[in-house]
Amino acid sequence: MSLKQLFAIQLSVLFLVGTTACATSPDFSGDKPTSSNIVDSSSPHVARAFGSVLRRDAETRVLEITHSPVPEADWPIMQMEFYVSREIDLSEYFPGDAVEFLFNFAAEQTPVIVAMRRTNPQELIAAMWPETAKTEQAEPD
Known about the structure:
With 141 residues, the protein is of the alpha+beta class. It has a single domain, classed as CATH 2.40.50.320. Helices cover 26% and strands 28% of the residues. It contains three helices and five strands. Strand 4 and strand 5 (112-118) form a beta hairpin. 26% of the residues are buried.
């Protein structure tokens, strides 16, 4: 089994787990979920992005990330905050880390990261600026 196939299988499993974990958005306030943070599980709004961690707040479980374009949400490259699901060990991620992540953006509040992994700078650059990756592939070694 190739690395690409293995990654595709892992990403599929993470997507399924993430979609299930996002039946309701995490309760960060300790209060009961409100209508504004309950996710309609019949129409998941889960997307994938690459980004660079800028700031980590372990107490509130928030990461500030500059992320690649997200066509599913009609978002350009931008910097924003994401809540991080309790299933993710936030202590493993630091400012400067290149990451790939799946997030739920169905709630009206801050999107929730449901799966995440470290990636390498080349993957991040290719996601942020796809035309750069195409140019590099076209150049002979």
